[in-house]
Amino acid sequence: MARIRKGVSYRPVKRAYTRYSKFKNKSFVKTRPVCRVVRFDMGNVKREYDYVLHLVSKQTLQIRDNALESARLAGNRVLEKNLGKDGFHLRVRKFPHHILRENPLAAGAGADRMSTGMAHSFGKIIGIAAQVKEGHEIFTLKVKKENLPIARKAMKKISLKLPKQYSISENKIKEKTLKTTEKKEIKTAKESEKAKVAVA
Which of 32, 34, 128, 149 would you call most buried, defined as having the most Cβ atoms within 10 angstroms of its Cβ? Predict the structure, then answer.
């Protein structure tokens, strides 16, 4: 059974000659592999939270989709076990757009006679990866104040599943301004008061 190559083989960021477009004449490649990341938003998206945590990359690198999915599962498992499905909002901030290629070489006895060398050296498509620059946020997690220790633990678990080093930034979410419905009610009340004054 063929095993997946080590992530270090695809870690350096190179110029993407593997553009994929919905317009056929603008596509450098005609097909692309299916993304292994099943979901990009987990938990309760609509609920309001007190704190937001970001997983920030310390280096520029490429992260394959299988690594992103592994990290997502590790973090989601910790959060759902401790907070339930409605106690957090976890989001994957990077999408693996970049298409990875390699020159396929035959292995085994007599492989040197069968190999085609550098003919058609554009390479065979083998996977996809997200190109991440230094300082970019990869995962974002929103929680209530009392759940901060669990959130930090989950983000630590996520970072261990990804290559290279990361920092966790923690910020308090500012209170939202009045909702649009409340604003409309205040506006109509002021208008009615002005009308009464004008009549008087």
Answer: 128
Token code pair at residue 49:
């939270």
Q: CB-side exposure of 90: number of CA atoms within 13 Å?
A: 28
For 36, other C-beta atoms within 10 Å of its C-beta total 16
Please state, in angstroms and as integers, the Cα–Cα distance from residue 166 to each residue in 3, 108, 155, 191, following that order.
Answer: 27, 40, 10, 53
Question: Token match 């970049």: residue?
Answer: 98
Cα 9 to chain centroid, rounded: 21
Q: Does domain 7-174 have CATH number 3.90.79.10?
A: no
- Tell me how far apart the alpha carbons of residues 131 and 199 are, in angstroms, rounded to a whole number: 65
C-alpha span between 169 and 147 (Å, rounded): 16
Q: Is residue 98 within 8 Å of residue 16, measured between CB atoms?
A: yes
Q: Are 40 and 92 in contact (CB under 8 A)?
A: yes
- First vs last C-alpha separation in the chain: 89
pLDDT in tens, 23-76: 878 777 877 888 999 999 999 998 889 999 999 999 999 999 999 999 999 999
Please give the model's pTM, rounded to 2 decimal places: 0.75
